[in-house]
Design brief:
Helices cover 15% and strands 28% of the residues. It is of the alpha+beta class and 617 residues long. The protein has two domains: 134 residues, no CATH class; 372 residues, Regulator of chromosome condensation 1/beta-lactamase-inhibitor protein II (Methylamine Dehydrogenase, Chain H), CATH 2.130.10.30. The strands form eight sheets. Strands 16-17-18-20-19 form a five-stranded antiparallel β-sheet. The protein has a four-stranded antiparallel β-sheet with strand order 4-5-6-7, with no helix packed on it. Strands 8-9-10-11 form a four-stranded antiparallel β-sheet, with no helix packed on it. Helix 1 runs parallel beside helix 5 and helix 4 runs parallel beside helix 6. The chain is globular and about 80 Å long.
Length: 617
């Protein structure tokens, strides 16, 4: 299916990648003297680090389709909800309690009866002891108590807002809601102009939203099962100072023979992999202790990290690593500048160190100078550099802090690019919020005169902003790269925006506008037409290349190819003519021999592609 010319040359000569680890500023450390980079040509990466000169792109065109624009003040009307398990008889009890304690049989409010009998138990928000309301009854109380059209409309608007914020965690089901509708109509039947056509229409819209959330949650459950698949580890391109193959090299038993992994993640120049048993392995650059072995030594081969419980999730920042244990505890190690480790200090730490928190985590996401974590209750926390945490403050955040700027919205996932300075968050109701660096449109919208800037002149948004252009698109996943972003919907369509120096957003750079530095970029999420007709199930953004995996396990790669990270079967010297820029702006399938097998997971770094493949049916 590839449109790239093939070659019969099988030259597998290895060359050395001249990528060097960036120098980070650090204070006192827990593992020895201040780190130094022993590689020549040390590079310093900052939030303003962009490419030096745009490449010459192929002079062809690619049809692109932008998503339909929506109003800025409407959230995404997409899915997530397998509601609570309350039985109908519990809800009926709630109606009964509300009727006897607050309303008469025609829906009018009556004074509550004050009991003079002492009780050993204190009343709670769920009602008097012995008469506690069900979850659904508590949430639907404003509707139950409404006695006019205006009150009913306001109550329904409130329920809709809570559904958008909490999704399935709100705790009501469509059975609850339908049951209420029947009861409420019966209660106000004799009252004129109460249950009007307008109320009925709004009730139907709220029920439709609830059904959409149920459908979304079912799809997420199905997707979650696929994430448990394991595979052997393969590599295209260069991680850190290691030699890399000029053409695709597939090892039958994988990079680490006999070990199957369920997840990989890449930092700037190091990586981590997680086994199904919960063991964590790291390799690559180690100058800041990010490998977790008690020193600052870099390692080409995978080494198991000791001193950490069995884990369920891993994440790599630019020069640090994080993990979540199966018990929901968070651990971090590596570069500590700006408080990105969440341990309360800015020190580098070379061994896994527990992050103190009063809540349990299920996922963690690491960037260049900040970190986010998702609690078991789906609340999003963040810490690290003040410009990028999303809190909007003027001081670095050294320990986990709930992201109050999301205004109570619960999240399904988040993403921060490898070495990136922007964050994407997907709420449980399917809305996308972005914040952080936006010099090249990676947040999904263009800047205006009110946009904040760093002292160096880089545009950034200090608090989350709703991406209205994605409203109603049933977003399944988000992925942030160094300076570009991608979203995947449940139809299998991929939309991208941001930096496009190397064609990483799926269109030719010459077709893009340029920012004040002359860099090509795409300021709005735009359909990747080169993936049209494919059922995409996973997306991943790296430094300047991108990956997509289909439902059949086929892998597509595009963008930067300077270190052969696109996994072509022919030698990189045959893929490109002398003097030609090494990148491909259109998605290219990784097919032919040697066969990669069925891809179950992919992760991208600055100049490397890691994948988990399986030849099992």
């Amino acid at each position: 299916m590839s449109t790239t010319p093939t070659s019969i040359n099988s030259n597998n000569t290895n060359i050395t990648c001249n990528t060097n680890e960036a120098t980070l500023v650090a204070t006192s450390t827990n593992c020895g003297t201040t780190a130094t980079n022993t590689n020549a040509g040390t590079t310093t990466i900052t939030a303003n680090d962009d490419e030096n000169k745009p490449p010459q792109a192929p002079q062809t065109t690619l049809r692109i389709v932008a998503p339909q624009q929506q109003s800025n003040n409407s959230e995404a009307i997409s899915p997530s909800l397998d509601g609570s398990k309350n039985e109908v008889h519990q809800l009926e009890k709630g109606f009964s309690l509300l009727n006897t304690n607050g309303m008469n049989d025609i829906g009018q409010k009556v004074p509550a009866t004050v009991s003079t009998v002492a009780t050993p138990k204190e009343a709670s928000e769920r009602g008097p002891p012995g008469e506690e309301l069900t979850v659904a009854a508590r949430i639907l109380t404003p509707l139950m108590e409404a006695t006019s059209e205006e009150e009913l409309l306001n109550a329904l608007q409130g329920i809709m807002g809570k559904l958008n914020d909490k999704g399935k965690y709100l705790g009501i089901t469509k059975v609850d809601f339908i049951k209420f509708g029947k009861e409420k109509r019966k209660m106000v039947k004799s009252m004129a102009n109460v249950w009007t056509k307008k109320v009925a229409s709004n009730f139907g819209a709220t029920l439709k939203r609830l059904n959409a959330l149920v459908a979304l949650e079912q799809k997420r459950d199905e997707a979650a099962e696929k994430l448990l698949r394991s595979g052997v580890l393969q590599q295209f391109g260069c991680l850190y100072g290691d030699s890399y193959s000029l053409s695709r090299n597939i090892l039958t038993q994988g990079i680490l023979s006999g070990v199957r992994f369920v997840r990989i993640d890449c930092g700037g120049q190091h990586a981590s992999a997680l086994t199904a048993d919960g063991d964590v392995y790291t390799w690559g650059a180690g100058s800041f202790g990010q490998l977790g072995h008690g020193n600052r030594t870099s390692r080409e081969g995978l080494s198991k990290v000791n001193g950490i419980p069995k884990s369920s999730w891993i994440a790599c920042g630019y020069a640090f690593t994080c993990a979540v244990s199966k018990d929901g505890e968070m651990f971090a190690w590596g570069a500590g500048e700006n408080g990105r480790l969440g341990t309360g200090t800015t020190d580098d730490i070379c061994v896994p160190t527990k992050i103190a928190a009063s809540w349990k985590a299920k996922k963690i996401f690491a960037g260049s100078v900040h970190t986010c974590a998702l609690s078991e209750e789906s609340e999003l926390y963040s810490w690290g550099h003040r410009n990028y945490t999303g809190h909007g403050g003027t001081e670095d955040v050294l320990t986990p802090k709930i992201l109050e700027t999301l205004e109570g919205k619960l999240c399904h996932m988040a993403s921060i690019g490898p070495g990136g300075y922007h964050t994407m968050a997907l709420t449980v109701s399917g809305a996308v919020y972005t914040w952080g660096h936006n010099r090249v449109g990676q947040l999904g919208f263009d800047n205006d005169t009110s946009t904040s800037t760093t002292p160096e002149g880089a545009y950034f948004y200090p608090v989350p902003r709703f991406v209205s252009a994605l409203a109603g698109m049933q977003i399944r996943a988000v992925s942030a790269g160094w300076g570009h972003s991608a979203v995947l919907n449940y139809k299998g369509d991929v939309y991208m925006c941001g930096r496009n120096y190397r064609g990483q957003v799926g269109m030719q750079p010459s077709a893009c506008p340029r920012n004040e530095r002359g860099h090509p970029y795409l300021p709005a999420f735009t359909l990747v037409d080169g993936l049209a007709g494919l059922k995409i199930e996973q997306i991943a953004c790296g430094g300047e290349h991108t990956a997509a995996v289909t439902s059949d396990g086929e892998l597509y790669l595009w963008g930067d190819d300077a270190c052969a990270q696109l996994g072509h079967s022919a030698s990189i010297n045959q893929e490109y003519s002398s003097g030609q820029q090494k990148y491909k702006w259109y998605p290219k399938i990784v097919d032919g021999e040697p066969c990669v097998g069925k891809v179950v997971h992919v992760a991208l770094g600055s100049a490397v592609t890691f994948l988990l493949s399986s030849k099992d049916d």
